[in-house]
Amino acid sequence: MNKLSYGLLSFLSTEPLTGYDLMLKLNHFWSTTHSAIYPLLAELEEKNYVTFTLIEQNGKPDKKVYEITDNGRSVLKDWISSPTDEAVRKDEMMLKIYCIQGFDKATIDKLIDEMENRYKKQLIKHTESLEKLKSSVGNKFNSCNAQRFGSYLILQKIVCDVKIGIEWCKWIRMLCNKNDGINCLDHNFQDFLKSLE
Amino acid sequence: MNKLSYGLLSFLSTEPLTGYDLMLKLNHFWSTTHSAIYPLLAELEEKNYVTFTLIEQNGKPDKKVYEITDNGRSVLKDWISSPTDEAVRKDEMMLKIYCIQGFDKATIDKLIDEMENRYKKQLIKHTESLEKLKSSVGNKFNSCNAQRFGSYLILQKIVCDVKIGIEWCKWIRMLCNKNDGINCLDHNFQDFLKSLE
DNA sequence: AGACGCATGTAAGGTGTTACATGATTCT
DNA sequence: AGAATCATGTAACACCTTACATGCGTCT
Question: In the prediction, which pLDDT does A186 show?
Fold first, then answer.
C-alpha cells in the first residue's frame, strides 16, 4: 500500500468511480498517470478493499466502476490516523527562477510570461471544477460531514494558490522594471498583496 | 540530464557549494536527498559542467566545493529558454483531507492540528532563511540582476504560501464548528482571508 | 484528415528513496 | 548517553513515467 493506493481509497470513499475518473480527479492536486492507477486498482481489488461493476457501453470502451468495501474503509481509518509524510514538491519553474539573475531581461521576461500563462490556465481549470462542484451539491458546505466537503476544501485552496501565483508573477515583473535603487526595503511580496485591495 | 541536474547547475550558478549545501538549499522547495545529489554531481563533473576543489577540514569530514564552468553556464542558458514541465505535487495530507467527511470530529480535529503544526514549523524555517538572506545581502533586491535575486523571490513566495496554509487550517476549523445551516453561501476561503485584515 | 476524449491495460526504462557505511564534534 | 550536524558515497529496491497497444465517436 503506497500513498497513491490510499489516495484511490480516499476518493472512492466519497463516490464510486472508474480508473479514468480517478485519474482526472486526482490530477487536480496529485501528479499521476493512468498507468500507475490501473495496476493499483487491481491490487486493491485482490485485497478486497474495493469491488467493481463492469458497465458495457456502446461507442465508448466498457468501463469498471469501483466501489470501496468495509475492509477498505477500515484501512482508510487506520491510515488517516497515522502520521502523515511531508509533501513532495518538484517544480522545474522554481529551479529556473532561482538562477534568473544571471540572464538578460528578454530571457527573464519570457520565463515570467510562461509562468503566468501556466497559472492562468490552472486558474480557469480549477475555477470551473469548483463551480461544477458547488452547483452539483447546491453550495451546502456548512458542516464537516457535508457531501464532498473535502473536495470543496481542497479546490478552494488550490484556486487561492494559483491566484497568488499570478500576483507573484506581477510582483516579480514590478521588481525587474524598477531601475532606481530607492525603496530597497519595500519589496515585500505580502505588502504587495495587501496593497492590491 | 534530468531536472535535478539542471537544478544543481542553477544553484551553482549563483555561488560555489558542496553537495551537502545543495541538499539543504534545494530542500526548501525541491524534495530530494543527498543520495540523489552526489551521483549527479559526479556526472556533471565528468561532463565538465562543474569542477570541484577538495577542502580538508579537521573535526569534520573533508568536503568538495563545486563551481559551475562556462560549459555548465551554456547548458543552463539552453535549459532556461526551453519549455518547462508541469510541477510535480504529491501531498499525502491533501489525500487525507479529501475523505474527512466520512470521519468523526475527533479524527478530523487531530488531522487539522497535525497539518497546522506542520505549516507552522515550515513558517519558522523559511522565515529564518529569508531573514538570513536579507541580512547577508543587505536587503538590496531592487533589480533583477541583484545578488541572490532568485532565492529572494522564491523564499518570499514560500513564506506567503505557508501563511495561507495556516489560515486555511483555521478556515476549515471554522466551517467544522458551524452547526447551523445558515449562511451557506458565505463559506469562501478568499473572503475569509480578506476578512482578516 | 487528424486530433482529442473515452477507457483500459502492459512493458521498459528512468528516477527516487531507504538503508548501509563511516566518524569526529557539539548539543541536550 | 544519545541525538544531531557535518560530509560523502554505494546498493537495493520501490516508484513513476513514457511508450506501446487498441478502437470508436466527435470535433476542427
Answer: 60
